[in-house]
Amino acid sequence: HRHLLGIAGLQPHELLFLLDEAEQWIDMNRAASKHDGRLEGLTQINAFFENSTRTLLSFEIAGKRLGADVVNMAAATSSLKKGETLIDTAVTLNAMRADVIVIRHAASGAVGLIADKVDCPVLNAGDGRHEHPTQALLDALTIRRRRGSIAGQIVAICGDILHSRVARSNILALTSLAAQVRVIAPPTLMPPAIEELGVTTFTDFDKGLEGADVVMMLRLQNERMSGGFIPSTREFHALYGLTAERLKRAAPDALVMHPGPMNRGVEITSEVADMPGRSAITEQVEMGVAVRMACLDILTRRARKVEGWA
Ligand code: CP
């Protein structure tokens, strides 16, 4: 694989290889000195055409810890505002001889489009409602470390599934690694034919939570609902908000996850989000840096003439 555009198309052994490679960075990231240097001399461009806190910063930190020269293209102040097309922007980045480009875009498929126009590896940092592969990898790594394995775990993914690239990439990764995935959403936010991906669907939150080992909450993606049905946050919280009382329906030691950004008091209460021993939300962020270091390392191996990616 030259690029990382999605979880779709990756084999289970490739997903496990990425997780194993990420493990090696966790200890270094916890040490006082956090420098490796294997990407020395390479230029990494982060082109984010949509807002981000976690993904942008962790890709920047990951690249810097590996020694790359990291440049962030701020879409808000770029020439996109002057009418430049996405393809012309991609060709421009390519002409600057980037060695790896990390892209987030609001349109599904936009990252794949850019990948076809450039000579270097492209990493998808989230495209529309399509995929967010590094998020799924960091979630899988968090589950594996906290639960001991992924296979056999009952993972309930809850909330706005319809607009969520996080849900889609997680469904693909977790089913591929033999977890039992449940999808819980109101009928209006449930994608049609989602069962074809090998998940069980629930519109009743309480039933879907029953015995779950991992409860992954998602926010309402209001920015992708223009013109459509937007649920009231009060009603959504009443029916689909994770409270401490509701969490009792899950397994006694169930892990609580959220990719962020959270809307406290809507899809999750602060009591649950901050619950000691149960919430893995900050650990997810920590795993994000390790996973992104692994992805940057692996995808630049061909250019660096290093063995080790399928
Ligand atoms: N989880 C996630 O993608 O967060 P950001 O939008 O802050 O990058």
TrEMBL record:
Residues 153-297 form the Aspartate/ornithine carbamoyltransferase Asp/Orn-binding domain. One of its GO terms (molecular function) is amino acid binding. Pathway: Pyrimidine metabolism; UMP biosynthesis via de novo pathway; (S)-dihydroorotate from bicarbonate: step 2/3. It is an enzyme of class 2 (transferase). InterPro entries: Asp/Orn_carbamoyltranf_P-bd (IPR006132), Asp/Orn_carbamoylTrfase (IPR006130), Asp/Orn_carbamoylTrfase_sf (IPR036901), Asp_carbamoyltransf (IPR002082), Asp_carbamoyltransf_Asp/Orn-bd (IPR006131). GO terms for biological process: 'de novo' pyrimidine nucleobase biosynthetic process; 'de novo' UMP biosynthetic process; amino acid metabolic process. GO terms for cellular component: cytosol. L-aspartate binds at residues 82, 165, 219. Keywords: Pyrimidine biosynthesis, Transferase. Residues 2-144 form the Aspartate/ornithine carbamoyltransferase carbamoyl-P binding domain. Its EC number is 2.1.3.2. Pfam families: OTCace, OTCace_N. Carbamoyl phosphate binds at residues 54-55, 104, 132, 135, 260-261. It comes from the Bacteria. The keyword Transferase applies. It catalyses: carbamoyl phosphate + L-aspartate = N-carbamoyl-L-aspartate + phosphate + H(+). Reversibly catalyzes the transfer of the carbamoyl group from carbamoyl phosphate (CP) to the N(epsilon) atom of ornithine (ORN) to produce L-citrulline. Heterododecamer (2C3:3R2) of six catalytic PyrB chains organized as two trimers (C3), and six regulatory PyrI chains organized as three dimers (R2). Belongs to the aspartate/ornithine carbamoyltransferase superfamily. ATCase family. This is Aspartate carbamoyltransferase. The lineage of its organism: Bacteria, Pseudomonadati, Pseudomonadota, Alphaproteobacteria, Sphingomonadales.
